[in-house]
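Entry for zinc ion complex. Fields follow.
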Amino acid sequence: MGLIEECPMARREGPGAPATGIQLRPDGAFAFGFGLERDSLSGALVDLSGKSLWQYKRPVEPGERPADTLDSIAAAVRSVLRSPRLRQVRGRTRGLGVAAPGPINLADGTIVGPPEFPGWEKVPVVSWLEAATSLPVLVDNAATAAALGVEWQMLPAHGSFLYCYWGLGIGGGLVIGGEAYRGSTGNVAELGHVVVNENGRPCACGGRGCLEAESSAAAVLRDARQHGQFPNIEAVANAAASIPAVRQLLEKAAHQMAAALVSAVNLTDVPEVIVGGAHFAAVEEIFLPILRSVIEGQVLRRRVAPVTLRTAPVGEEANALGVAALVLHEQLPHNSSTGTHAARDPRSVHADGQAREGRRPPSAKPLQDPPPNEFAGTGGRR
Ligand SMILES: [Zn+2]
């Protein structure tokens, strides 16, 4: 199938013929990933090693019609597939993934009217793009995809982590043992709708005092306009050095985000929290010391083992990379016990709570035997 190739291996001591290694061929398969955000659309074409061969980015104006957004995705895909420079990609492109803000319906591939995302109520992204590109298409939650993109590109130290996306909206992704945990419908780790102020502002989700309504870039930008004219969150962050009230707004947002993250770590017992997002770099200098001191000082597990906090080295493109990884995982043969397509059905989530489609596609490392299941048959071995 052209997916693997031989590779040299170190000569082992002892009898027997020298072993031949095999590894994935980076150019054995390709996938497109697109990240749809409230103010931008990004895209990437990746190979089996996770390397990006093509990237795309454009602003999305408020009120842009979903049909126009989807048209531009289809046009970008067609132009790549026609490009002489990327001739090797034709015939080996396995599909196209779209990462979108939740809530989404994994089973039928629709976006279900995300808060603050007008016009995207029940948009049939999968069927529309399949017809326009003739490629298999999947849609998934943006923050879950971004968490997988981060996992694919940076290999977190522990394999289990909570990812928090901070931008105009706030989202979360939960990776446990290298696999995305998806809950029962794929709408998991919605950190933006953790309540941090029970008497706070109404939230687009219908609740009140959610983290997203109180502390997102959009919320901070709105509050900062009492103190001056700011076109974006980057301008607000710059003003924090000279206007104490603006600095206090950012510090308050960081404390509310820290409170939500402490609760999330206490619920999940993850050893690592990774924060990223299109606009987080602007506020990092103020946010990170607060997040670090509150999380490290308050999570219950700190007396047993520390929690590390890091920023994601992949920024806005993380969700496009992650959803491309999901395409490769779904479309390539693997020895998952669920098969490839059943896993898209939320009803097929495993008894242990983990659907298998969240697995990171194998990297270009030499193949190894899977690790033994440490929970199987422990009675006899312990
Ligand atoms: Zn909410």
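NOTE: The chain has two domains: 29-142+320-358, 147-311.
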